[in-house]
Every structure is written in C-alpha cells, then in structure tokens.
Amino acid sequence: MTNELSPLLRQLRRKAGMTQETLAERAGVGVRTVRGLETGERADPRVTTVRLLADALGLTAEEREELLAAAIPRSGDGDQPEDPADHTEPVTGQPVSALHESLADVAEQLAQAVAARWQREEEQRQVHDPYPLPVRWQPVPEELTDHWANIRRLPAGDTRGPLDLSGRLDEIVGVYRRIPSGRLVVLGRSGSGKTILAVRFVLEHLKSRARAEPVPVIFSIGSWDPTAVTFRDWLTAQLTRDHPGLAAPGPGGSSLAAALVETGGVLPVLDGFDEIAGGLRRPALEALNATTLPLLLTSRPSEYAAAVAETDVLTSAAAVEMTDLTLDDLAAYLPRTARKARGGDPAATAWDPVLSELRERPHGRAGANLATVLTTPLMVTLARAVYSDTPDTDPATLLDTRRFGSPEDLEDHLLDNFTATVYRPRPEHRPGHHRAFDPERAQYWLGYLAHHLTRLDTPNLEWWRLGCGLRRSTRTLTTALVICLAIGLVDCVVGALFDPLEFQLADGLVAGLMSGLMFGIAYWFMVAAKDAAVEPSGVRMKLFGRQGKSMRRPLPRLVIGVLCGFVFGCGYGFVRGVINGFFFHISLPTSLAVGLGDGILYGLFFALGAGPTFGLLTLLETPLDIRSAVNPVSLLRANSRTVAAQFLVWGPTFGLLVGFGSEMAIRPMSAVLGPLVWNVTAALKLGVIGGLGGVLGYVLSLTAWGQWAVLARIWLPLTGRLPWSVVTFLEDAYQRGVLRQAGAVYQFRHARLQHHLAREYRATRGRSASHGTGGP
C-alpha cells in the first residue's frame, strides 16, 4: 500500500503546483512527514493527517477518497495504532500555518471546556458510585451497516471482512479508533446507557487526544430540522449556543465555530437520533450521508432501522448494539448500593431476597416481570434511587404481583416514585444543600416543563424559550402590559419631581400606553409572528479597556435607532399634546395642531437620542470569552450583566443626547412651528424619563434576559405553572438528578422520564378541568 500512497501523494502535490514545504505549511504538519510519506519511510499515517493533506491540496471528492483508500489499510487487519508524531511533529525552520495554529489554540480551549463540563456531569449522575454499570455491546445485523470495504476504506478488490468491535464501557475509544472511516452508530433501547457511553467516549477521547485531532463534542441531535438548516450550519449554531465565545470572528471572516466545523476541528457525537421528529429522520440520514465527517451517532434500534429502510445506512459507518444487563450484573451492583443489614450477616442487604427470587424462580410471574425491567441501566438506577438511597423502603415490594401485574406497571411505579423520592423531606437537610420543595408541587412544575418540551418537540430546556410554549398573542400582550406598567410607573415617579402629580399621572398613562403599544407591535413583528424566541446575546459590553471586535456594524443600528425613535416620538408627542390641550381647556382644533407640532418636535428629539445611543452600544460590544457559558446559569448571568451594562450606557447617553439635542433643535424648530415653550428643566426631564423608559422597553421586549424576566419570572409563576424562584428550582432539580446539563441547556435525565412527567401533567390538568379547578 505504501507504493500506492507515495506516488499518488506526489502526483497530487505536483498537480496542485506545491512544493513539499508549501504543502506541509498549508496542512499544518511537518515537512518531514510529507517527505516521509512520499518516499515510503512513513508507512502508517494518521487518518487525520491524510485528511489535512487532502484539505490543503483542495482535492475533489473522488481524489480525496482515492488518497484515503491508499493511505488507510497498512496491515493485514487495518487495526494498527497510529504514530502520534505524524501531525504534532515540530519542524525547525518551517512555520506552521497561521490558520491551523490559531484554530488549534481555539480547539484546545474548547477541549478544556468540554472536558470540565462532562466530568462534572458524570460526577453529578453518580456514574462511578460505587462503580459504573457494566455497559456492553455486540455487532448488529449486517443490513444496518455499510459494506466493510467502505468502513475499512479498502481499495477496489480488497475483500477483508468485519472488524471485531465488541467491548465494554471503558473500551469505547479503543473500539472507535479501530474504525478507519471514523463513523460509528451505537444502537440501544430506551435506558440502555447510550448517553452514558457518549459521555465516557468524550472524556476518554479527550484524555488521549493529540493537538491536531478534532475535539469530540456531544450534540443532542433531536433538535435538528434537516429540512430547515444544513448539518454543518446546525453544528455551528449549537456550538455557538453552548460556547458563545465561538461566535467571535475567526480566520477568513467566518465565526470560530464555523471555522472549527469546516476544518474538521470538531468530532460530532450525535446523541438521540431517535428523538428527531418521525418525518425528519430520513432527510436527516440523507444529510449525514452527504458529508464525510467522522462521527458517533446514538439511536434506538427501531427508529434507526426504519430510517435505513426508507433510504440507506449511514455511509461508511459501523454499528453496534447495547446488550442487556445480566442477573450477575445486578447481583454485583445492587447490594453495594444499599446499607448493610443491622445484626446478623453484615454482608446481607435488603436486595438479597429480591435477587434470590430472580435467581431461584426466574420463570415465576414476579421474577420474570422484574427481570424484564432491570435489564437497562436507567431502570436499575431508578430502582437504586427509590429503594437503596431511601431509608425504610423495601425492594421486595417490587415482587408484589397484585400491585404490579406487568413490567410496564413496574416501570411506571419506578418513574412515579423517582421524583417523589428525590424530593422527599430530609431530616438531615442542611442550609445550602437542597432547598425544600413540596414533592407534589415539584412534580407538577416538572410536568409543566416536560409538557413544554413536548409541545416544542425538543429535548432541550432552554431558559430563554420557557415562554415559547404560550400562545403568541399571550406572549405579546403580556410583554406589552409589563412594559406599559413599568414605563408608566417610571414616568410618574420621575416626572413627579418636575411637575404636579395630577399632570404626571396623565403623562405617565400616555407614556405607558404608547410604549406598551409601540414595543408590543415591534415584539409581534420581530419575534412573536415568527413564533421564535429572542436568542441570548453572544456579546458583552466592554465599558473600559481595549474593545474586542464588535459583532455588528454601528451604522445599521444607528439608522434603526433613528427611525424607531422618530416613530415613537411622533406618536408620544402627538398624544401628549392633545392631552395637554384637554388639560388646559384648549379647543380641539388647537389641541390637534399643538399635538402635531409636539409630535414632530418629540420625534426629532427621540431620533437624535436613540440613533447615536444604539450605535454607541454596538461599538462597546465585544465577543464573549470562548470558555464562557459552560452551563445554563452562567449563560443567564452573562446575559444579565450585558443587559445591566446596556442599561448603564443607554440611560445617561440617551438623556444627555436628548437634553443637548433639544436645546440645539428648539430654536430652528421654533422658526418652523412657531413659539415653543421649552427650558432646561423640560430637557432634563425628557432625557431622564426617555432614557429609563427606552432601555426598559428594549430590554423587556427584545433581549433574551428581558423575555425570561417577563414570561418565566412573572407570568408563568403568576399562573402557577412554575415557581417564583425558577433558577433555584432548575438548579435544585439538576442537583437532585432529575435534570442534566447539556451545554447551555437543561435536559431531563432521560427522555422516558420526560414523557412520563408530561403525561402525568396532562392527566392532572384534565382532572382539574373536569372538576373546575386549576393546578396547584
């Protein structure tokens, strides 16, 4: 095979018009590596090295496949380990490509963030307490895998057969590295441990990862709509969501996230193919087959098999299937999770009678039902939580066939009692450990969250989308009402320092109603009508020090600010002029004329203030740090700090611009509109109220944090669907193991738990509706 690779690489390099030094620089590898491959001295290059060379040469798809086929099979079985020096070799006197070096630094930071995140997640799930359950897998039927020649990247005529891919949890990285194509499908029924395997794969892969290798990142593929967004664009968006710093501009003008995806710097670990909507699985599989990216995909077998039947297998992908836990696995694990029995045999536990029943009467009704249930890590961990981790509970209850006549009854029992168990009052409760929540109310709130995710058809619980389950009209009216009340209150309180209270009450009413109307209309057309959510900002405000590169250009924002300020000022000034005319007993025609003049005047004032203020906000924006937002709470806090900084910039800047602008514009406007009553006090009042009101309206309607405050912190708790302390509740649910964190979002511990809680919530709402009562 060396004789095939050497002349082929040399031929392709010469065709591209490159020297060995140029190719090495562009690929980010050592020139000795290129020279060794062309002379045959290096017989076993890494797959990633060959891909880097192919990228640098700009090969066509056919040429790329030919080069890979010539390079990969080096031995009789194709399973030889690769020399890590192939791409990490430093070269004296040869500069490494600036593009690859820059992206390598970004990838290193991403790798550190990913490792820290999933290490915490594994600890939170108690995967190693007392030891990981023995997750194993076996080969799948041949119809679910591609041809082994394609998987092994064999040249034409080579007929070598399947690779041995059997193994257990701690061997997953080694098994994956034996696959030349770098594409693996892991199948397993619900609760079989696919996500645990994905997490372990990421952590183990990161431990042995060389600098030039891609960073494994877990993506919950259930949220992908392949008919709306391409696979690479979706990967980029998910990376940006979980790591907002990757939205910063990278080499070539694209974002760092896009650059990593396009250059193969990310190894996608796609968890939950079965959670993609049924009608989208076929286009999803077709879209994956249109790429050559290495990846690891998890799915339930039936959903994957159905998608394969409709189109084709995942190209060049091997596949394995998770196996059930055995009775020996249960006998080794469950007793070690329970307390020792008091008196008698110190090694005895409450699980002993249950295990004896399973071993001695495996075909009895009780034993058969329970043995069917306890074959997956999910159900074993639920049984452990309900019976091992809870005092005064007896697992022998699970053998009661009068209560549990089928495996499904047992599973529902474990799912029902899991939330009740983790929220049970604890005598040993200490401040700061777990906040006490009523178990019934906690289950109702969790049910609403599960129902919310079911309606949105996504596994991702995003804090900025908690209000998206409401009707669009409800979201718009609630937003407009909160803005109306907030700005009206500010107008009354601040204005009372300048004018009589009775006058200011009328002015506050006008300001509140006009602001609610204007911002409500803006919110409807920009957000609600699209049935979308306001995404978290990928920038922060840098008030001091050197500014980073802004994500937006200031000129378009300045124009938008001028237009919005003018429209709002015209409406507010006209209504205010008419109200003033009524207040001072002026005739209607005169009041309308005064209103028209005030509308033009205030429109100019607000335009002069809003436009430059928006532009200044843009100039002060700087991308978030790459390692920021490693969890939902940190992303929420980052956005709240950005909003606070916007508030501090907007208020004073807008006030000063309106104040000075009105003083400069009042004389020329008097020549056009006639004598106008205006003074420094009026300018100061308008500046203060306008600055506070403008930033409140913008924040509450058009920022992710504002929508979180309006809908998740006010409306949903007010209607009983969520607690008032939403963040505390979500973090507490994560600490108790009901939720898990996947980047910047929460997810339920398992899709099965989510569906169960959503079903129970709908049943509770149905019973409440039939009795004419609301939920708790």
Automatic annotation (TrEMBL):
Residues 9-64 form the HTH cro/C1-type domain. The chain crosses the membrane at residues 480-498, 510-534, 555-579, 599-620, 641-662, 682-705. It holds the Pfam family NACHT. Keywords: Membrane, Transmembrane, Transmembrane helix. Residues 73-95 are annotated as: Disordered. The keyword Ribonucleoprotein does not apply. This is HTH cro/C1-type domain-containing protein. It comes from Streptomyces albospinus.
